[in-house]
Amino acid sequence: MVCEDRCGCGAVCRRIFGRTNKPSDEDTHDETIPVTLTQLAEARDVKFTQVLDEPLSIGSHIICTGTPSEDLPWFAINVGVGDPESGRGDIAVHFNVRMPQCYVVRNTRRHEKWGPEETTAFRLFPFKTDRPFTIEVIMDEQQTLWAVDGEHYCSYTHRNPNPSAAAWVQVAGVRDATLTINKTDTYPSLAPTPIDVPSRATIDALPSPTEPESWRPNVIAALSNGIPEGQQIIIRGRLRPLLHSFSVDLMDAARDWPQPNVALHANVRAHVESQQSRQLVVLNAWLGAWGAERRQRTARLIPGTQTTLKILRGASEWCVYSDDVLIGELEYRVPPSVVKGLRIRGDLYPEEIYICPVSNSPVVEKCGC
């Protein structure tokens, strides 16, 4: 399995952004809660199928609504080919919500055989019994993206069969399910307008009353004025106790899809050779495709603690600092003025994000390897 970020890293790891949505040390769910065969059979029998009038293509947008019920502990959205009623058709994408275990499985079934499951997600399990949900699915060239209640949840890379060959979409295990299939230019369509990153006069200035009181994990924020020359972006936050990895992207638009260009992708990977004293830092840019990576083992982050990241707009490169230590530099591959959005994903939970001048910031030389 490769990194779900499609960052070109080649990492053999499905948890590149740190969060499997199976229960962990931070959750209290019991994965051994029994589900009877009768309940599963009943969930499969409660189904709604919509035949596609035209093939799915880039920009196809599926919206499913419904309410999980206590007596149906399992529900699924299937995008498939063949006969949907026989139960033997191929399923290009299977999105299976398992309520008692509190995680979501994605998979593909071909010739009545299932492939390897995927269970990672960018957020905690969002479904609750008797609470309505809205799931959005967007079709891209190489993957489908899934959002729950207006917030991106996961992605799933196409396998064989490809969902572009699908003949139907089916919801099973939800009695009040609705399906709408059309085209869209935005995803998630229910997402609120991104918050604009505020500016402060100095790095130590107090926040203004208009600043957000808190920032959500895996946030996408707008940089309407970009990062002006001589300025830096500050991200203060908490690291997950079981630190795996996180990324910060400077993009030309504040959105998940259509995929924006990424002027700077800064990825800290604590899971790679985690016995070493410093974490791996990978820097890159996405301009229709990933470019050449810059790698250095320079970060020394302590899981479960507060940290401060700084990204400085330098004379000819982006400079990335962690707690005043330079951990990486990436030369400009596009003009820095194109940056209009910020995305944070993974095991860094932001508490403060703002822009301020560089001049009063301490500079410490990059630690050696």
Please, could you describe this protein's structure?
By secondary structure, the protein is mostly beta strands. The protein folds into two domains: 37-183, Jelly Rolls, CATH 2.60.120; 220-357, Sandwich (Jelly Rolls), CATH 2.60.120.200. It contains one helix and 22 strands. A six-stranded antiparallel beta sheet has the order 1-10-3-4-5-6, covered by helices on one side. A six-stranded antiparallel beta sheet has the order 12-21-14-15-16-17, with no helix packed on it. Strands 9-8-7-2-11 form a five-stranded antiparallel beta sheet, with no helix packed on it. The model is unreliable at 1-20 and 22-33 (pLDDT under 50).
The first-to-last residue Cα distance is: 29 Å
Annotated CATH topology of the largest domain: Jelly Rolls
Largest sheet: 6 strands, antiparallel
What is the string of SSEs from the N terminus onward? HEEEEEEEEEEEEEEEEEEEEEE
Envelope shape: elongated
Number of strands: 22
- How many independent structural domains? 2
Keywords:
single chain; 369 residues; mainly beta; Jelly Rolls; 2 domains; 22 strands
Please summarize what this structure is.
This protein has 369 residues and is mostly beta strands. It has one helix at residues 37-45; strands at 47-51, 60-66, 74-81, 90-98, 103-110, 113-114, 133-139, 143-148, 151-157, 168-172, 178-183, 220-222, 231-239, 245-251, 262-269, 279-286, 294-299, 306-313, 317-322, 325-331, 341-346, 348-357.
